[in-house]
Amino acid sequence: MKKISLASVLLLIAALMLSSVSLAAEPIKFGAVNPLGDITGFQTTRAMELAVKEINEAGGLLGRPVELIVVDDEMRPEIGAAAIDRLATVDNVDFFVGGMGSGVHLAQVPALKKYEKITVWMGAASHQVEIAMGPDADWYFHLHPWDYQQGASYGQGWTDIANAHPEIGASRIFLAYEEGAFGTDSYLAYLDLYEAAKDGEGPYGQILNDFAGASFTSALLGGGDYRAMLRQAMDFDPDLFIWAGYDADAVPMVAQAMELGFEPPLFVGAPPGWPANFGDNPLSDGVILYGMWAPALKEVSEISNHFWNEYIKMHGHEPATYFAPLGYTNIMFLAEAIKAAGTLEKDAVIEALRTIEYESPIGAVLKIEPSNIISNQGFTSQKILQYIDGEQHVIWPFEYATSEIKYPFGR
Amino acid sequence: MRNKAMLIVAAFVIAAASLPLFAGPYFLSVFNTIFVYMSLALTWDIMLRTGQLSYGTAGLFGLGAYASALLVAKAGLNPLVSIAAGGAFAGLLAFFLGFGVLRLRKIYFSITTLALTTVFSVIIRNLPRLTGGASGTVLPRALFNGDPGKNYWMIYCLALAVIAISVWLSKSKTHYAINAIRNDEITARSSGIDVFKYLLFIFVLTSTIQGVIGAFYAQQYAFVQPEATFSMNFLLLPLAMALVGGVYSTIGPVVGAVLLGLVSEYLKLIMPYGHLIVYGIIIVLVVLFMPQGITRAFAKLFTRKMQVGGVDSASLRD
Question: Model ipTM?
Fold first, then answer.
């Protein structure tokens, strides 16, 4: 009896020890580098925290909790590079995630190549990053569409819209571009697309017949009078008018166009960010924009709806930038791959990342495919959105459309 | 006292040189960044000693970076040689620009040097075939293949050289000439000092160093991009470091760079969100309450304590 009770006590102790080991299991560490002083990086991090919370509430991964370690890159390349060193050698993370600006990420490339840990990077759209990373980094996964993929997707979008709505044409495009680097590069990219379209090739090959452009000084850089440029656009009489400037140009651009009576059938703005509450301005109605996500997606996508509600519940504010659902996607996609691999072994996780498909709150299924140089590219296209009655709606791709296009633009 | 000070400096130099033997890549990265900004802070301060407030640090840093990167990417030059070439290019350009900008004084000189950064950046952006335009240029590989220890030793040696130049200048006859120019240019001129010659010498010297540091930065991270390479951080942070440490000296920018570099990292550890606000407040408070800089404030405090303690202050000067 004594022997039995001693054995049972020993068993009990062993069981307790095992369970305590399981409870206190080493976490799987995700190391993120985000710019926390910027709204995109801030909301990305908040969305990542939501994803990690959901994963841990569901029992973690491989029986272990997930820990998210975030380092601020301060939008400075050297700080971003040091952050990779810190996460790899001080925090000993298992995976790298996050990321925003291309300039910061370019400086991180040598450090990432040094450690060769599995990296699922969500930002940095410049094709220079792809060149710097090279074709051999099989451990590197990039989620945001590259700059050239974005340009191609707009052409595809307008072709699809023109095919679906014969009354909508995009054969004459006028590009108004701010005279700095951002605008000038956009203009040069459109010139290349136009040259290809002349031979019936490229993303605009089926629709574009004529193209013109004119520069303006952005309101952000002391300008803000677009009348001379708008008069050139009026003389050209485009089907599709696009301006590539900054958020400070958004309201005065539409206001001055209205003032001159310039109401092209399609009025598109392509700044890197829009002014807060632009939708509240009556002038916004019918303005088209490019982006990866719109809050209205929650009406057509279950996962978008889930993300929207849970993000607000956890943080008390609405996600305002597509980097928020992209950050959530970043963590969830990696977590799904680890689950599918059933191990943290590098080759198995890489294989799982390449084979799984993840329905993302961004409004697309994430699947890895090769791009021009790297073999592991995630999303390949942006969306065409439109302000309708004060709200951003998706009008293309059609499978995620939350509204019909409002056409033509104008009062 | 002097021997003690020399011993302390020697101990710091040896300790810093041996850091890669026991510190990990992260700490080496942090100190690497500190040495980059320390060198820039010293060059900004050296120019300030002439009485000219230059805002061209970021521009010449960027020019050196671009010259070096393009020489490697387009001409296949050895990266180490390209770093020297980057500095030479920035110095040569500063020599020619000096004939124009050094005719200006005070706010006009400052605004012109600030504008130069924008001008360089715009030119680079508008030469896409040569420079890669707004997207920049990527190099085939990073300096020393990204080896943190070798990169650390490289920037450490460069920073030591800049410190040595600063110390040498403060002991040379140039020091007296530029001090005289700063205090009263007309009197200096009347005393036979060739004002333009000295200003040009200092402008070319500091620009060359800024170009070398920019070139090293470009080679270390293997890329150049107008937005990142001509960032105002390469002007504002060195300026803040020199002001916090104390201007018109070698020790001021050195201490300012080390202090702000370490404080920045520490704040980030203890408050991931909002650390930059605290960092900014610290800089404002130091500049407001210690306008001569931390080094002079502590030197005064130390001297006062020694006097209260009965130590002859004259012995401190030995």
Answer: 0.89
Query: What is the reported pTM?
Result: 0.88
- Closest CB to A36: pick one of B32, B225, B272: B272
Domain A149-291+384-400 is in which class?
alpha beta
- The structural architecture, per CATH, of the domain A27-145+298-380 is 3-Layer(aba) Sandwich (3.40)
Show the domain range for B145. 23-232
For the stretch B223-261, pLDDT in tens is 999 989 999 999 999 999 999 999 999 999 999 999 999
**Closest residue in A to B217 (Cα–Cα):** A78
Q: Tell whether A110 is within 8 A of chain B (Cβ).
A: yes
Integer CA distances (angstroms), A336 to A22, A94, A310, in order:
21, 15, 19
Q: Report the domain count for chain B.
A: 1
Q: Which helix (H) or strand (E) holds A393?
A: strand A391-396
Partners of A82 on chain B (C-beta within 8 Å) are 26, 29-30, 32-33
pLDDT value for B203: 96
**Cβ <8 Å between A71 and B268:** yes
Contacts of A132 in chain B (CB under 8 A): 138, 222-223
Query: Using omega within 30 degrees of 0 as the cis cutoff, is the peptide bond preceding B238 cis?
Result: no
Question: What is the C-alpha to C-alpha distance for residues B26 and B262, in angstroms, rounded to an integer?
Answer: 12
Q: What are the structure tokens assigned to A58, written together? A: 């569901």
